Amino acid sequence: ETGVTQTPRHLVMGMTNKKSLKCEQHLGHNAMYWYKQSAKKPLELMFVYSLEERVENNSVPSRFSPECPNSSHLFLHLHTLQPEDSALYLCASSQEIGGYTFGSGTRLTVV
Amino acid sequence: AQSVTQPDIHITVSEGASLELRCNYSYGATPYLFWYVQSPGQGLQLLLKYFSGDTLVQGIKGFEAEFKRSQSSFNLRKPSVHWSDAAEYFCAVGAREYGNKLVFGAGTILRVKS
Q1: What does the pLDDT look like over A27-76, one tens digit per residue?
Q2: B60 SS3 class
Q3: Which residue from A94, A99, A103 is facing B43, i.e. has the nearest CB?
Q4: With an 8 Å Cβ cutoff, are A99 and B99 in contact?
Q5: What is the pLDDT of residue A61?
Q6: Is B8 in a helix, a strand, or coil?
Q7: Distance of alpha carbon A7 from alpha carbon A45, whole angstroms
Q8: Residue A107: other Cβ atoms inside 10 A
Q9: Which residue from B56, B50, B6, B55 is spatially nearest to B26, judged by alpha carbons?
Q10: Phi then psi dihedrals of residue B84, to 5 deg
Q11: Which residues numbered 42-81 in B keep a CB inside 8 Å of some CB on A?
Q12: How far is CA A58 from the centre of its chain?
């Protein structure tokens, strides 16, 4: 149990589907993040939420839509994805600059 | 711009041998430094972190790292590697001036041969 829980662990979706990734933390952290990890590429920061407000959006395509309804939950809504969006999507949380706690990730395959 | 360099993409070490993974950073502020480990298909787990004080930091699983300001380095070491240490290792840097955001290196894949 890492303190950050991501569901589902695996997801296969067609390019016309709509799905959502969920992240939940019970660590009392005040910031949450979405990262994309593709094979042979560095971790890509997608979104940052601090105190439930989006503070960073790293030029992510609009087919990815984040939502942070409260300090414990973070969602990533997906629609009309492309095969190159297949990757491991990691959620993390942090309190101040104390370092991140990561979830186990969602392995997304777009077919 | 802030950056983190892990010069070695892959490293292979014999079981029982010592290990050193390199990390260099370029940061315009006093850095906070981290090492994470990732097993296949899993998230990243924090091994150790440096904020201030003693420049030699002890972490979990027998790892340690040394902060050398003059070399802008934060290398990870382990005196005797176990087969279960095979994984990918990420160095990360942050600073209070940049809020909570961490910048990650590209990672080093460690292979352990018996």
Answers
A1: 999 899 999 999 878 888 899 998 777 777 778 999 999 999 998 999 99
A2: helix
A3: A103
A4: no
A5: 93
A6: coil
A7: 19
A8: 16
A9: B6
A10: -70, -5
A11: 42-46, 49, 51
A12: 13
Can you tell me the distance from the alpha carbon of A93 to that of A72, in angstroms, rounded to the nearest whole number?
9
Q: For A45, which residue in chain B has the nearest alpha carbon?
A: B103
Distance from CA of A37 to the nearest CA of B (A): 10
Confidence band for A2, pLDDT divided at 50, 70 and 90: low
**CB within 8 Å: B46 and A101:** yes
Distance CA B36, CA B54 (A): 20
**Do the Cβ atoms of A96 and B104 come within 8 Å?**
no
CA dist B96 and B105 (Å) reads 19
Q: Which residue has the tokens 């972190």?
A: B49
Contact A104, A2 (CB under 8 A): yes
- Decide: helix, strand or coil at residue B5: strand
Q: How many whole angstroms separate alpha carbon B103 and alpha carbon B25?
A: 10
Tokens of A21: 């990734």
- Residues from chain A that touch B101, judged by Cβ atoms under 8 A, are 45, 48, 56
